[in-house]
Amino acid sequence: MRNLFIYIPLVIIALFVLGPxxxxxSTSVKPNGEVLSVIPHLIPRRWEFDNYAKxxxxxxxxxxxxxxxxxxxxxxxxxxxxxxxAAYAFARIDFIGKRALFLxxxxxxxxxxxxxxxxxxITITNLGWVNSYQGLIVPWLVSVFTxxxxxxxxxxxxxxxxxxxxxxxxxxxxxxxxxxxxxxKPIWITAALIKFVGAWNSFLWVLVVANSPSLYTxxxxxxxxxxxxxxxxxxxxxxxxxxxxxxxxxxxxxxRYFVEGIARAGIK
Amino acid sequence: MSYRARRTIAAxxxxxxxxSLTAVFVMYPIVDSFLISFYKWDMLSVSKxxxxxxxxxxxxxxxxxxxxxxxxxxxxxxxxxCVIALGLITALLxxxxxxxxxxxxxxxxxxxxxxxxxxxxxxxWIFNDQFGLLNYFLGLFGVxxxxxLNDPQWTLFNMVxxxxxxxxxxxxxxxxxGLQGISREYYEAAAVDGAAWWHKFRMITFPLLSPTTYFVxxxxxxxxxxxxxxxxxxxGESPGPNNSGMTLLYYMFDKGFNDYHMGYATASAxxxxxxxxxxxxxxxxxxxxxxxxx
Lengths: 268, 294
What we know:
The complex is a heterodimer of chains A (268) and B (294). Chain A is 75% helix and 0% strand. With 268 residues, chain A is mostly helical. Chain A folds into 2 domains: 1-48, no CATH class; 59-267, MetI-like fold. Chain A is globular. The two termini of chain A are 37 Å apart. In chain B, helix 2 crosses helix 12 (262-293) and helix 11 packs antiparallel against helix 12 (262-293). The relative contact order of chain B is 0.13.
């Protein structure tokens, strides 16, 4: 009896959260006639998988997919590498000016990225990088959040680890890549997942920097497809499905790291 | 060279890449944005006259900006309480040693990791006035069909529903982590005294959870002030009927990339930045106080 009071509201909440996705999947496999019916139904009477092929053919989604993957991958790889280097220096090396530099870096977290949109666009214009991969990628190669997350973790590692590395004659870079990173797997997976998802979903920057479809990422390509196809909802939902699917798979694989990372960053 | 000097050089070498990128793409733009807000400039021409605070005076007299400001504030004060209340309830339910905890927790999180571009299109379809799921569902309870996306009176409601849906998982996960940090001993002591659940919630859970609540409150508030994308996508790249979905960030985007008024755009961006800055300061002072008292 007590359990009912827990499970019934939970199921209602889960339906609210997942309902739109279920509806997306359902619409994406319906023929035109069934989509526009006044009394909607969940299971299509006739399954129309052709919607996926049609959506895929009417816009260069494969290219958008590649752009999304390439941009997110480069941003994540570089962010993790140079972020880990900075985090290691801040956590484990005692140097002149450390406190001041770290505070300056930390203060930038407060600034909402959206405020930087216009001056960064001007910088990119001056560099001649509008409508190019450099323009899309370079401003996002480092995130202070990654540095912060890794620094906290490196601080918690035992001093003996570092003493032993130094005894073996390892410099800081070698210590970081050979010894520290292998034992810091949970934190760099978390940082990588958060960065990758953020890059994959980034919208506003791509919208203003990419002027031609050849540089669109999936989200921007999807909106472009939507303004062209307007009301063909079954194809639209098919396109939305393959925009969403890669991240849902990534999330399903790494959900433990993801959820714990958010909880840890949230609580500190 | 001394050991410390060598280490300092190594440290600076390791910080250099991250720091220089941050300097160019974060620190410099903060200053640059502020400077641009005092000029009349369309970004393309050489002419760039200094106009003092004229841009700020202009936007505060622009009915569209005032509408954006009031829409944004209305969104914040409607969205934040809803998402916090629902997130707290969900976290309390999930904290009851239930089965399928991992499933529920992960499912809740999916909207948060999926692109707003895709989810915006899904919600556009659900809000469709003729064939949308929402009108059908409400029709089952005898509610007449509404023109959700074309009637300005529903714009705030649509934004809040979509915002809560998107952020519920995030808020729940943070609350859940906070709840799991509360020692079981308090509840065991309360159980000995035979306290009712409502009593336990009021006397133990809520007070001990307050640092988390403050944190979530400030974070969701800051986030809510930046609302833009869900309007942009939901209303097919427009700020909604009669600009009913015009927000501060939408105004900045509109002035900057549609009208090429960089002065107005950066001035409005700085107004938004100042609002967020005040909330960040509030968070830092509050969290310090809560921490010392707790």
